Amino acid sequence: MYWRRIAELPSWMRAVMLGQLVSAAGALAWLYLTLYLVQDRGMSAQQAGFAAAAYGVGLVGGNLGGGWIGDRFGLRTAAVASQLTWAITCAAMPLAPNGWLAALGALAGLCGGATRPNLSALVAISLPAERRREGIALSRTASNAGFMIGPPLGGLVAAYDFSLVFVFDAVTSLVLAFVIWRWAPPARRVRQVVRLRGSVDRSLLILLAMIVVLDTACRQIYVTMPLLLRDAGSPPVAYGVLIAVNSVLIVCLEAPLAIRLRSHQALRVIAAGSALVGVGLAVLGIWPALMGAVVAIVVITAGEMLYKPTATAHVADLAPEGMVGRYSSLYAAASVSGMFLAPALGGVAYEHVPRLLFPIAGGLAVAAGVVLALTRQAAARDALPSASTAQRSSGS
After folding, report:
1. Would residue 5 count as lying in a domain?
2. Per the domain annotation, does 240 fall within a domain?
3. Mind telling me which residue stretches traverse the membrane in this protein (predicted)?
């Protein structure tokens, strides 16, 4: 059944998924960035955190503006341009002096960040609403299949020469740019501006705010967990294998899970996923060792599989016709906000209060899940009077 669902996707989407797999296999530069800055560039954990945060700031800007550009000039055009400029800035990273790294990282994030919302929007407009969660999960499956290959190899390459990691990242990004240009269809351009109103405004804003909190907490596995494992005596390749475990679980389970839960209320699924992320982070705080990290990654991955495809599709469902790119950008910007918040906050916390970092991050993720659960209940209560009024009107 799983492979049949993939075969039912549009042919261009299957081609782009293959390009995503190749690109993800080489997407190593920023995965190992904090370790690279500390180990090869001689920075402290705090300095590396702030330098990586500059990339995150640019990434948020690229994600936020990318969908708007895609709606205006074409989703495919915007995605190709962002991949090309990303490859250039990524290749320049090992050549830049330390004083330029933050600025170059911000530029790289700005250039490359637009790809994700435009690809998400292309998927959303190509599939019926009832298959959006599934389609987005399958797209993530392709990327995570690449992550199964890339991080362990990246750990071995990093042990030899960290500069090669950046070069490999740039080359595989060019492959994805070509695939998108060659096979992805152009999307209709939209120039009108539609404003959110009423309860949709409140639920959307609450969801985006909680995604910011959740992403900041969850990204500690990419920012400070490699430092924790290093201090526990584990080699870089152990961290790469852990990230590969995350990808294996997503590849095997996320799309089937999305299909099984597609009829469940979106905010309930997102809230459950947020709670699981919090539990996993708490495990890492209680058991700061390699085996503790293994357990944490499994639990956190379960949470990711619940909340990420569901939240992406839910925001696309809220979008007016022709505005999916802009709405996807709103979600994409919120969902990568941790790229600058997590390194800045996590780097400082790990240097000064390392024992509190993961318990606090876990608590924030659980709190975000509680807020979303309460939001869903409030929306359900608000819908009851409207339904009663409609029944009375039809009866009269």
Report:
1. no
2. yes
3. 12-38, 50-69, 162-184, 204-225, 237-259, 328-350, 356-374
Compute the distance between CA of residue 333 and CA of residue 211 in angstroms, rounded to an integer. Answer: 10
**Count of alpha carbons within 13 Å of 325, Cβ hemisphere only?**
30
Q: What is the CATH number of the domain that holds 201?
A: 1.20.1250.20
Q: Per-residue pLDDT tens for 306-352?
A: 999 999 888 888 877 777 888 888 998 898 888 778 887 888 888 88
- Extract the tokens encoding 232: 């526990």
- pLDDT tens digits, one per residue of 87-109: 999 888 888 888 888 888 889 88
In a domain, 1, yes or no: no
What's the number of domains the chain is made of? 1
Report yes or no: 334 and 212 within 8 Å, Cβ to Cβ. yes
The burial class, CB within 10 Å (0-12 / 13-18 / 19+), for 365 is buried
Which of these ranges, 25-29, 190-194, 265-269, has the smallest mean pLDDT? 190-194
pLDDT of residue 8 exceeding 80, the answer is no
Give the pLDDT confidence of 349-376 residue by residue, as tens digits: 888 888 889 999 999 999 999 999 888 7
Q: Measuring CA to CA, which residue among 211, 215, 186, 199 is closest to residue 330?
A: 211
Give the pLDDT confidence score for residue 378 in this predicted structure: 66
Tell me which residue of 192, 300, 284, 203 sits closest to 243, measured CA to CA: 300
Given this model, what pLDDT does residue 382 score? 54
Which of these, 251, 225, 220, 248, lies nearest to 238 by C-alpha position?
Answer: 225
DSSP type of residue 188: -
Q: Give the separation between CA 331 and CA 117, rounded to whole angstroms.
A: 8
Please check whether residue 396 lies inside any domain of the structure: no
Take residue 4 and report the two structure tokens written for it. 């049949």
What is the separation of C-alpha 310 from the centre of its chain, rounded to a whole number of angstroms? 12
Buried b / exposed e along 249-272 (16+ C-beta atoms within 10 A): bbbbebbbbbbebbeeebbbbbbb
